[in-house]
Design a protein that fits this description.
The chain has 7 helices and 6 strands; from the N terminus they run E-H-E-H-E-H-E-H-E-H-E-H-H. It is mainly alpha-helical. Strands 1-2-3 form a 3-stranded parallel beta sheet, with helices on both faces. The chain has a 3-stranded parallel beta sheet with strand order 4-5-6, sandwiched between helices.
Length: 217
């Protein structure tokens, strides 16, 4: 199961895992993007709001009814835009929404998937961010949520291991422009300076993260 699997890093991961032989469920709150991904790739789309425990519970149950098991959970769903403006003007509802989707959603998915994952001796991979350890201005809610993901990951690894392995990946700048839903798709305008600031000499690609997720699984 790949949450937020209809676009971006999630979709690249879902498609790579399908190519490697997994039966993949895309769990996503964006119905338009989910249906597009399902039609294009043949993967099963299940609508899921990871911030809602009822929605998460229903999503896991539907997956288990369909496939009878769950071997891997990729917690990728999140509000991706990091900037929320000056902290003195950051509304509490915006702060709470970021933490609910980016952090609490991963907890809820792990909570409701744990029994099935233990039975399968499976694995969880959480998608954190370099922003967990380094920041730019006006990104307090995003940074806090991703820092929480790193801490949640090592706590889950101790709690669920050794039956379930739990790791996280912290991507930096990844160009996901080609893997957005059709009406949101815009070519990225990346300069030489954008690429040069990375040790690899280029901005990251969704496939880079997907390959690491596959390795960790």
């Amino acid at each position: 199961m790949v949450t937020g699997g209809a676009q971006g890093i999630g979709r690249a991961t879902a498609e790579l895992l399908a190519a490697r032989g997994y039966d993949v469920v895309i769990a996503d709150a964006d119905v338009e993007a989910g249906r597009e991904a399902e039609a294009a790739s043949g993967l099963l789309f299940v609508r899921c709001d990871v911030a809602s425990e009822r929605s998460v519970h229903a999503c896991i149950n539907r997956t288990l009814r369909r496939f009878g098991r769950l071997d891997a959970l990729i917690n990728n769903a999140g509000i991706a835009s990091p900037e929320t403006g000056p902290v003195q003007r950051l509304a509490l509802r915006e702060w709470n929404r970021r933490l609910a989707v980016n952090l609490t959603g991963m907890f809820l998915m792990a909570k409701h998937a744990a029994v099935a994952l233990r039975r399968a001796r499976g694995a969880i991979v959480n998608i954190a961010s370099t922003r967990a350890l380094q920041s730019e201005p006006d990104s307090e809610a995003y940074a806090a949520s991703k820092g929480g993901v790193v801490a949640l990951t090592h706590a889950l690894a101790i709690s669920l291991g050794p039956q379930v392995r739990v790791n996280c990946v912290s991507p930096g700048w990844i160009d996901v422009s080609a893997l957005k839903k059709r009406r949101a798709r815009r070519p990225a305008r990346l300069s030489r300076a954008d690429h040069a600031q990375h040790p690899a000499g280029r901005v990251g690609r969704p496939e880079d993260v997907a390959e690491l997720v596959a390795f960790l699984l």
